[in-house]
Amino acid sequence: EYDSPKYIRMQSVTWGFVKCLLYVTVALSVCCIVIIYRLYEETDEVNSSVRTNVKGVAYTNDRIWDTAEYTIPMQAVNSFFVMTNIIKTENQFEQRCPEYPFGKAICSSDKSCEKGSVNIHSHGIQTGRCVNYNATVKTCEVKAWCPVESMEKPPEPAVLRSSEDFTVLIKNNIYFPKFNYTILNVPANLNSSCTYNKITSPLCPIFRLGDILQEAKENFSEVAVKGGIIAIEINWDCNLDSFYDCNPKYGFRRLDDKKIQPGFHFRYARYYKLPNGKEQRTLFKVYGIRFDVLVFGTGRKFNGVELIKNIGSMISYFGLVATAIEIAICLCNCSRCSKSPFYKIYNRKKYETLLNPRQVMFVSYVDEPHVTLIKKPLKTSLQHAQGSIVESHPVKFYDAGSCCTSQSNENLDNEEYELGRPLRQGAFSPDCQKWCCCGNCQPTEKYHEQLCCRRTEGPCITTSHWFLQLVLSSHTLRKALLYEDPFLNLTDGNINNQLRHLAYKQYVHWRFGSFDLEDRAVIPSCCRWKIRDTYPKAGNDYTGFK
Fold first, then answer.
1. Single Gene Ontology BP term (predicted)?
2. Would you tell me how many other CB atoms lie within 10 Å of the CB of residue 453?
3. How many angstroms separate the CA atoms of 54 and 182, rounded?
4. Which long-range CB contacts under 8 A does 429-432 form with residues at least 24 apart?
5. Are 195 and 180 in contact (CB under 8 A)?
6. CB contact at 8 A, 472 and 419
7. CA gap 389, 131 in Å, rounded
8. Is the dihedral of CA 198, 201, 206, 209 positive or negative?
9. Rounded distance between C-alpha atoms, residue 167 and residue 190, angstroms
10. Can you tell me the distance from the alpha carbon of 198 to that of 261, in angstroms, rounded to the nearest whole number?
11. What's the rounded Cα separation, in Å, for the pair 281 and 267?
């Protein structure tokens, strides 16, 4: 089985224009999203490796500084370090000496120094003695590399401020495994004398250190004093279709915070063995700039499956059109427009209320073109109970002639004589006149049985030609029974019960337009007793009123 939703079609220029406008808007939006975000392409993330080579020579403090001096290997991946400033402590031996004077190292006597204690700012282990650091200050004696390092600020200007003119060659190999594509950022016809410039040489992989900090909006001389961390970003956005467009774009920015403990430094030592067997070292506290090469990017290639998949996922956006129109209609329905017949009809067609069959009844009058719904419990006769229109009266007249032969039509006049006999006595009692409008209803004290075939006074429907032909015709009812069961015995003594029940169904189908209302449709008293008199039950023991 296949279930399809039911829609209501509204003939309205306004809402039709709104629907078309919204559909066009959604379609254009989907197209723009597909094009802008390249949803028609398959993507792959980049895998990369980085190699660097720094070059430059500086002369300062009567000393030559070459690459081996100022470039110190880093443990970090894809990073290199260039020294720009230095504090050097020479001729250190492992022995006892006064601690550098800081808050907890200053003392007045040996009691202030605890033997074996270590402070996080100390350079060694205290011996328990308080000794002179200089003529005015005493500090605790420590066992350390002496003389201890002085906690002074780095020199200004920086020792290697001329490293601004050093250059670095960055070689970056990338690989897109999904597309099996490899490329290097170094052009095949590289001019080794070129230097990167965003405008004139955007693809040159040789960078001047001063230009890198300038692109990062930093001053090299200021950063060189305490050091810093600079990111060199290489972005690969590659179109790998038949025409290859895969070139790197470089960007630069500072990573360390300039306001909260800026800079970058570390310590290392060089050790020497003296002829007397003692070990000596020189301690270097170096400041410099660490350059982190960050590589990221995406390879793209057209893929029809990706396009279909992404468009399919965005087709649901068209459902927003119906939702938006529904919201607009609800807003109009809640405003003054709700008085319009259009919105009343819309609400009636749009929403179908499902009621409990035991709590409602449906009635149909011959002088009204609709079916009326009446809710229980009844506080007055069913004839006078107030109800609501549930639908237009879709009467589908059952053509008895379609089931009857010409011979049956000839016998109809004879049947009319038999079927046209008057109802039993008492049908015209004064009690029934309070709710009966046709004069043929049976009196009853039960509210749910007090129903006439008419809303206003007039002839009874049981006296009409079509009632006799469609409901009471024995020939028609017998043929209908044989249509359902070809081997039915029409001479059975219980045949009247079957004919009576079928006559009830025929009336419901005629006056209510559908057998769906059979269990809730109420047959008027005059019609019900006319059918019962025509096809009586033995003992007149009838149950029900529908």
1. positive regulation of interleukin-1 beta production
2. 30
3. 25
4. 432/525
5. no
6. yes
7. 111
8. negative
9. 16
10. 31
11. 13
Report the C-alpha gap between 326 and 351 in whole angstroms.
13
Cα four-point dihedral sign 201, 206, 208, 211: positive
Spell 59-87 as b/e; 16+ CB within 10 A means b: eeeeeebeeeebbbeeeeebbbbbbbbbb
Percent of the chain with pLDDT over 70: 89
Q: Name the β-bridge partners of 230.
A: 254, 291
User: What distances in angstroms separate CA 78 from CA 211, 231, 527, one per listed residue?
Assistant: 20, 11, 98
Give CA–CA dist 281/99, Å, rounded. Answer: 18
Residue type (1 letter), 414: N
User: Distance between CA atoms of 174 and 297, rounded to whole angstroms?
Assistant: 9
Structure tokens at 1: 């089985």
Q: Which helix (H) or strand (E) holds 84?
A: strand 79-98
Region 141-159 average pLDDT: 91
The one-letter amino acid at 404: C
Kindly write down the DSSP assignment for every residue of 363-388, as one continuous string: EE-TTSSEEEEEESSPSS-TTT---E
pTM: 0.61
Which amino acid, residue 12? S
Enumerate domains of the chain plus CATH numbers.
13-40+303-350 (no CATH), 47-90+155-300 (2.60.490.10), 100-147 (no CATH), 360-395+432-534 (no CATH)
Is 376 in contact with 360 (CB distance < 8 Å)?
A: yes
Phi, psi values for residue 304, rounded to 5°? -65, -35
User: What is the model's pLDDT at position 349?
Assistant: 78
Residue 397: strand, helix, or coil: coil
* Residue 148: closest CA among 95, 226, 85, 111: 95
Q: What is the pLDDT of residues 397-431, one digit of tens each?
A: 444 334 443 344 444 444 443 444 444 444 444 44
| DSSP code of residue 192 | T
Burial 96-129 (b: 16+ CB within 10 A, else e): ebbbbbeeebebeeeebbeeeeebeebbbebbee
37: alpha, beta or left? (left if phi > 0; alpha if psi -120 to 50)? alpha
Enumerate long-range contacts of 125-130, CB under 8 Å, 24 or more apart. 126/99, 127/96
Supply 74's token pair. Answer: 């880093």
Pick left, alpha or beta for residue 373 (phi over 0 → left; psi -120 to 50 → alpha; otherwise beta).
beta
Half-sphere exposure of 386 (CA within 13 A, CB side): 0
User: By CB neighbour count within 10 A (0-12 exposed, 13-18 middle, 19+ buried), where does 374 fall?
Assistant: middle
Q: Which of 162, 156, 157 is nearest to 210 (CA)?
A: 162
Residue-wise pLDDT tens digits, 289-339: 999 999 999 999 999 999 999 999 999 899 889 889 888 888 877 776 556
Q: How far apart are CA 441 and CA 423, in angstroms?
A: 9
CB-based contact 325:333 (threshold 8 Å): no
- C-alpha neighbours within 13 Å on the C-beta side of residue 499: 26
- Quick check: 531 and 511 in contact, CB under 8 A? no
DSSP tag of 486? T
